[in-house]
Design a protein that fits this description.
Blueprint lengths: L1 H16 L9 E5 L20 E3 L2 E5 L2 E5 L1 E4 L7 E3 L2 E5 L2 E5 L2 E3 L22 E4 L2 E5 L13 E2 L16 E2 L11 H7 L8 H12 L5 H4 L7 E2 L2 H10 L11 H11 L36
Helix pairs in contact: 3-6
Length: about 290
């Protein structure tokens, strides 16, 4: 048992040594068995200008794999895009490569997270003159409220349509490797996940209903409009095992979400917009037609 633990630490250490220090991307944990397939879910309506989509993913804790719900978040500053984390096979274990913020979207294992993250790059929108323009061909945006939008169906990656595999490499994994451009993006200066994102992961970890061993790979709440909405819903159903009390990570998250954000556009006046989940047929708001999320 001790030798196995030592081997795992050596694997993680070797993987970390290969990651550029400036990237803030790292391998935080190694696991001996693959994560479950990605669940199918609907993307909630974007809460307001300046929010960017963070797709849901499987993380790993003491109790096993658990789902971190997809959510809309504010980037740390204008012009940055989110590169999702991913699980990759290497050195006899599945290693988690953490996500990061940067000027370009780098390699994320070829995993089809949907909603613009079809396995290569990001087709859900772009920064234009200090404002984010949303591609409504693949993301769920209320165009009567948010006017900085466009439609580009060419970003739909039809080679990954229907793929729900959640890891790269190994038996049954996605056989994708970084392109020269993605490798260059990976060497850029990056910013670590924000405190809001980190607190969201902690909340997800505390919610027993997110455990794959409990939900069978089908989390009850696979996505939410905002981190605060997810926490409120999980607390209401007693997901944290502390009915009527508040998880410490959520308290910190509420403080952070209440602080002014000087870079991204706020979601003021949009709280009354109700997320009308829409079916995401090919080319709709379901991840660029890669697979429908419900």
């Amino acid at each position: 048992m001790r030798s196995f633990s030592l081997i795992r630490k050596l694997i993680v250490g070797a993987a970390l040594a290969l990651v550029p220090a400036a990237s803030f991307a790292g391998v935080f944990i190694s696991v001996g068995f693959a994560p479950p397939v990605l669940p199918v879910y609907t993307q909630p309506l974007c809460p307001g200008d300046g929010y960017l989509w963070n797709p849901g993913y499987w993380a790993y804790g003491d109790a096993g794999y658990y789902w971190v719900p997809g959510v809309w978040v504010r980037p740390p500053q204008v012009g940055l895009l989110w590169t999702p984390g991913y699980w990759g096979w290497g050195g006899g274990a599945y290693l988690f490569h953490a996500g990061y913020w940067g000027p370009h979207v780098g390699f994320y294992g070829g995993v089809n997270y949907g909603f613009g993250f079809g396995g290569v790059g990001f087709g859900g929108g772009r920064w234009v003159g200090g404002h984010f323009a949303y591609n409504t061909a693949v993301v769920n945006v209320n165009t009567t409220i948010i006017h900085s939008t466009y439609v580009d169906r060419t970003v739909i990656n039809r080679t990954t349509i229907g793929s729900r595999t959640s890891f790269n490499g190994g038996a049954g994994g996605i056989q994708a490797r970084p392109s020269a451009q993605e490798a260059a993006y990976g060497r850029e200066s990056h910013i670590a996940p924000t405190s809001e994102q980190q607190n969201h992961m902690q909340m997800a970890r505390a919610d027993r209903g997110n455990l794959a061993s409990v939900n069978g790979g089908r989390p009850q709440m696979a996505a939410a409009r905002t981190t605060s909405e997810y926490h409120a819903a999980a607390q209401q159903r007693g997901g944290f095992g502390q009915q009527g009390s508040q998880h410490p990570a959520a308290q910190a998250n509420e403080r952070n979400s209440g602080a002014a954000n000087n870079h991204a556009q706020p979601a003021a006046q949009h709280a009354q917009v109700q997320p009308h989940a829409q079916p995401h047929a090919e080319g709709g708001h379901g991840g660029g037609g890669e697979h429908e999320h419900k």
